[in-house]
Amino acid sequence: MINPSQLFKCLADETRLLATLLIYKEGELCVCELMEAMDDSQPKVSRHLAQLRACGLLTDRRQGQWVYYSLNSDLPEWAVGALDAACVGYRKPLDIALKTLSTSKERPNRC
After folding, report:
1. Domains, in order of start, for the chain
2. Which of 5, 10, 26, 30 would staple 55 via disulfide (CB 3.0–4.6 Å)?
3. Distance of CA 33 to the CA centre of its chain
4. Is 0.90 topped by the overall pTM?
5. 18 with 93: CB under 8 angstroms?
6. Closest CA to 20 of 4, 38, 36, 2
7. 11-35, pLDDT tens digit by residue?
């Protein structure tokens, strides 16, 4: 189970923070959706998602060619509370990325 120092170390990078908050708000996202919302390259987004998965914040599932990332359902309540607080503190960049995501026409279909 993740401890506070691991959580905050994982979220100390802005790319990892924004990706985690987008996934938290949306439920699950694939790399292509995060690339568009964050205006970042595939290698950069994938590298950060791998780090978030390795530290236990995210899990993934494969559907055809897509890999979807979601928040680890085993996160302790205090960690989810920290994400709620981060959504408030990082509201402007998060809102911009969510708006970009909501207007995307190329989102994959989920089963």
Report:
1. 4-99 (1.10.10.10)
2. 10
3. 10
4. yes
5. yes
6. 38
7. 999 999 999 999 999 999 999 999 9
